[in-house]
Write the structure tokens for this entry.
Amino acid sequence: MIKVNNLTKRYYNFENSEEGVIDVSFEVEKGEVVSILGSSGSGKSTLLKLLSGLKKQDSGTYSFEDGVGVGYVSQEYTLWPHLNVLENLILAPILKNPNNKKEIKEEALKLLNRFDLDKYSNTYSHELSGGQKQRVALLRSLMIKPKILFLDEITSSLDPELTKSVLDLVRALADEGYTMLIVTHHISFAKSISDKVLFLKKGGVLTYQNANDFFANQDNLEIKSFITDIAHKYDY
Amino acid sequence: MFEILIEYRYLFFEGFLTTIKLLASIIIIGVPLGILIGVIGGRYSKTASQLISSLKFLTKIIPVLVLLFWLHYPLQAILGIVVDPFWTTIIALGFVNLVAVAFIIQSELKLLPVAYREAGITLGMSKGQIVRYIELPILMKRVLPSISLNQASMLEYTLFASLISVPELFRVAQSVNAMVYDPVSIYSLLVLFFVIILAPLHLFIAWYKKNNVIEYD
């Protein structure tokens, strides 16, 4: 479903004030959930931005199965503040299909209802909690009917209680068969949801393996230490 | 007080008309051009951005009245030209307004989170749609109070035109006072005029700021 071949991109890591080069190749099968792990500055976010079309690669290629749409949710709050929740969900689909306004609105309300967010349909972004904002952003990305979701540390700015609600939604979407690439710092979540783990180091793939093997039979000391550190820091 | 207004209504009306013409010209020059230049500085050109910031700095340190006088006397003497004071006022205040509006737009564009644009791109929206349905409405909601306040200041600055003999409202008030010597009535009328025009504008801006301004996360 996703094929990435020698994809390269020079990037700048603001946190460490360092330049790096993404250089990756991997494949993801339909319906698989892949967690992307790696230390800060390893190129995880750059990789997802490349695959989402937000950045252009320096060289290499990537492709998705024909006709498959892609959704992307970032770590930042991206709900448009001048629109309410419902308007956020329907704007892009209506611009694409102006004749289906009614159906699109009904579909959005149904989606909000399904994930218990319908009571916020007329609410604006600044009235929502961080967790609600990220859940709505996720649902908004579903409105363009993607089969692939790229989620970039969508819980990084949330406290534990709110994080859980977002991760529960991601889990529900994974159960529905979405193919997902997830950048996360929550090891226990990655362990429970992932089919595979892509571990990046300085822009390159250090390992890409089955999630069970990655977590249970890890013999790379660097990765082991990373898992321990990050689990200690982010898992609750 | 109102007897004087009635008796000299034609003079006051002429003065009022001149003030309105000045203000309208200053707004027409400052707002659309300021928005255009601000967008160029905020989005497309670093040079334009630096120029706007430098000009803003200049207009901050040079008082409007000094600028107006400098354009009216020394500059025209240096260039050997004579420009009608009405137009000198429009050029001076139009420039100050343009720089202020361009700076407001440029600063707001720089504050606008890139994430909003990125969300639009990943949802399949075109660049034009993102500007029209996302960036422009957010930007307008945020800059409307500042730009409106600036126009209110411009109305106040038109009073300076009286000092270079533009027959605007204040100049007319001074002339009428010279004829009838009733400063209490005449300047009270002037106070009333500004209260009637500016109080609703300031109240509206305060209300708008409280109810409509968008805060970023």
Remarks:
- The interface with chain B takes residues 52-54, 69-72, 74, 76-82, 91-92, 95-96, 125-126, 133, 137, 140-141, 143-144 of chain A (CB under 8 Å).
- Chain A has eight helices and nine strands.
